[in-house]
């Protein structure tokens, strides 16, 4: 067999379908889904094709091929322990959106797999599975050269994920030979499609030919589709004769780099060696988090950020196994970038930023990891004392969920102590977590039901709104009302398509134009309230009807010019903001979403950390400089390649066709954009940032205004400032800061006086409380409910108590701002002997409906029931009676 690199395999697949079978190559989409709440991550090639398959959009070419980076974490515990599992992988695929079907898909698959000019695999090594009733698929495989006895019937070969397109699928397996056979003769799983290592699944072809209807029935699709998925890592392992996916050029450079960072550990291909598993997990996880962060996600405690954090922590723990007790994952980022530089050059380009994010997360995890190890050791000690010999499942899950400890790692620590782990209990926690994640994403189906109402409507609708806002004599070509194509609409709301239109359809974050439709008599026939793109790209106008509209009749169309102009101003400002953020914050920032409205603009962008006021001021100043410089705004129509050569920034690759619009703002900002813009930056008048905030893990949002809205904002702020000056009795607005400084000084003086008085009151109360010493189990106890302002005063009294050595245990409480505060202190001698303030306060705090914790010699708690403070004092005495030794 020929030996191919991962780059060669990827290119060969894409070139085969592009050059030989006229597919459009679709560049890999971001791992972070765009406008798809049903997915946490892009998890397959078809996930980026949903809008084509459900009929929402008709692609310019119905034949598409891609190598899509994908991420799945549903079986993360298997990574490193099997030959085939990865969290991030590339899915090669070819797709037909109502074009070719079964016979061509299978014939081309046979050609790619067996033709010596391509993969050149021996047909005797190839096996396929098919749905038992799908006789056509079996016939086509035999016709393509697959031996008849290499076709296996599988009832599970029917792809169906609920409502939407579905149909039989057929899987291709490569026989790696007897040396890979890990099962005993006669094992029921020893066949292509079974759980074994010999027959490696490399490709799946889904033959979508039915709609799974809401009532559970299956109806033939108006257009049959092909969706295939080939795992790049698996195919590369065949070409490179690698025992597993990890002994390929996609992972070995990362593994070798990790060897150099380790405590003289060496990677040895194995399925059970602890070090080998650690190397694999590290290589897999750093690859996944590098790409995820590069695509805009950042570590956090929720959603995608939580996945990244968990992967980093899991890899860090594995590093400890290899003797790496310091941050190291960030050092592997350039290695990942180099491996993937051919298809994804942006990863290596952004390596410094990626290193910074990962290093920061590693450093912050050090303390958490230490706490987790302490908890694990404590649990192991407690379990051994109890003689139960098993770690509870909820504890194992907490170690996994909070501290990043893989279940297997906990099990290994337990095994060293001759203990076991309640794995069923752990799975209960995992299942609950997965259910919470599923509910958080909502119940939207993976793919919408195909709706062909406008799919086959190809009547052109010419958009002329870049140059004019009024059209005379536009003919109605289609009317949709109540989900039906009609010839006439007498009233209510309808969707209307015209032969020509000046109305901008919502796209790229810019809202749609609004305006009016007049009939031949000059009367208002309808109002345009929204415009969207139909599946084939025509402008579809949502209208409120005043007079009957008829297909074939002509009307005059007028865009609201003020709304259009203000929207254009904000769109141009969005481009200035995008470029300026990159200039000020760094090249790692990129657009994560936007909204261009007539009255404001909203811009979401990726950035690690809050944007400082200094940087925001700098951004605002630069943009206003560009406005005052009266830069010309020019637009040219060209092809994507020429646009990139001009330096244009590509925001959403999938939206670009053969022709693109390139918007150039005085050579300061050059972007691909289909929106509307002003002719000169001076038309913006003024730019003002309203707010900056975080909207998700690693995503920041700026809201800003321009023109009259910016002027109105400044007028409002001036009015507020004048009112403030009046309230401060300042003669001039300029005097406000000094007046505030005077007020702050007065407030500080009053607070100091208050604290002094409170301290005196507290000391007076303390002298009484400190005299009330009780004896419980031979220990001296002082309790008391005081009338002080809060926890600070309680801590001061506890320090005084400790310095004077007034008793062995102190419990004080107070009511503050409608809530209760408690403090427990234990002298050092008894704290060292196991009498822990933290244990005591957890019990006592229940009386005030609260909770807390702290160090062995001091702990504090808050609660919402101040009335329970007297009972808390009694509970403290009882706890000491029960627990003091």
TrEMBL record:
It is an enzyme of class 6 (ligase). Residues 4-716 form the Alanyl-transfer RNA synthetases family profile domain. It comes from the Bacteria. It is found in: Cytoplasm. Binds 1 zinc ion per subunit. It catalyses: tRNA(Ala) + L-alanine + ATP = L-alanyl-tRNA(Ala) + AMP + diphosphate. Its EC number is 6.1.1.7. Its main location: cytoplasm. Its cofactor is Zn(2+). Residues 740-767 form a coiled coil. GO terms for cellular component: cytosol. One of its GO terms (molecular function) is tRNA binding. The keyword Zinc applies. Zn(2+) binds at residues 571, 575, 673, 677. Residues 848-885 are annotated as: Disordered. Keywords: Aminoacyl-tRNA synthetase, ATP-binding, Coiled coil, Cytoplasm, Ligase, Metal-binding, Nucleotide-binding, Protein biosynthesis, RNA-binding, tRNA-binding, Zinc. GO terms for biological process: alanyl-tRNA aminoacylation. PANTHER family: ALANINE--TRNA LIGASE, CYTOPLASMIC, ALANYL-TRNA SYNTHETASE. Consists of three domains; the N-terminal catalytic domain, the editing domain and the C-terminal C-Ala domain. The editing domain removes incorrectly charged amino acids, while the C-Ala domain, along with tRNA(Ala), serves as a bridge to cooperatively bring together the editing and aminoacylation centers thus stimulating deacylation of misacylated tRNAs. Catalyzes the attachment of alanine to tRNA(Ala) in a two-step reaction: alanine is first activated by ATP to form Ala-AMP and then transferred to the acceptor end of tRNA(Ala). Also edits incorrectly charged Ser-tRNA(Ala) and Gly-tRNA(Ala) via its editing domain. Belongs to the class-II aminoacyl-tRNA synthetase family. This is Alanine--tRNA ligase. The lineage of its organism: Bacteria, Bacillati, Bacillota, Bacilli, Lactobacillales. The gene is alaS.
